[in-house]
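Late entry, written up from scratch paper. The run itself happened at the end of the previous shift, but nothing got recorded in the book at the time, so transcribing now.
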Amino acid sequence: MSTLRVATRGSALALWQARHVASLLRAADPDLEVVEVVVETTGDRNREVPIGAIGGRGVFTKEVQAAVLDGRADLAVHSAKDLPSSPELQPDGIVIAAVPERADARDALVGSTLDALAPGARIGTGSVRRRVQLTDRRPDLTFADLRGNIGTRLDKASEHDAVVVALAALDRLGRLDAVAEVLEPTLMLPQVGQGALAIECRPGDAPLVGVIDHAPTRRCVDAERAWLATLGGGCDLPAGAYCTIEDDGGLRLRALLASYDGRIVLRDENDGDGAELAARMLDNGGRSLLE
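Output as recorded:
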């Protein structure tokens, strides 16, 4: 029997994701034994501080990646949305070997539907992407920072009129009962990679892990990540992108880039070429936002 050591964060959601990946790997190889290696990340240690203030997306991934690079683990399981998209931020000696089939990428409101919220209602979210898009629909809303794992956010939902949470997270933890409204991408474009998992390993182990790669999901996540990478690794503006596969097998990539105050909101879409779409949005006002 062969053994794979899986590096993961220790939250309930992260452990669910690691165990889901383990089940996929065991389905491909019933003789495989999978062992969890739990790692605490910077993002886990600083739950009250805005993510942008402590390093952006990489705060949830660097220590997990390090466990693979230093030999404590054979592979790392991440929420794809937490991985930086720029190639220069990808550590040497590690590759994304698999992106399993994606869960529902949409966001959800907990506590109230959007239309039922009173004027001036307070929404709990630490995401500027979510704030800008909700303000675009409801300029009267107010916002309060809210960070922490899913359990913490649900516990604090009663302190707000509503909170925004990724639908996939609620589903994976068996808390769909908490959903008041699912927000369609036409109203709320998801974060790049939302609902998807990314499994990293050393290049030599990629064939073993690659058996659980889901090609349609990989195409879509790669398109979204290419869009964000072209905007640049330093982009911390409100941004979202969501790629779907059309009936004819082609891709449709929809993206949003906005100013922090939401006064400028750029939207565009194309047939799945993330780099081309980002370049066009930069030329049509995005570059001035970044500057």
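The first helix runs from residue 12 to 28.
(Scratch paper discarded after transcription.)
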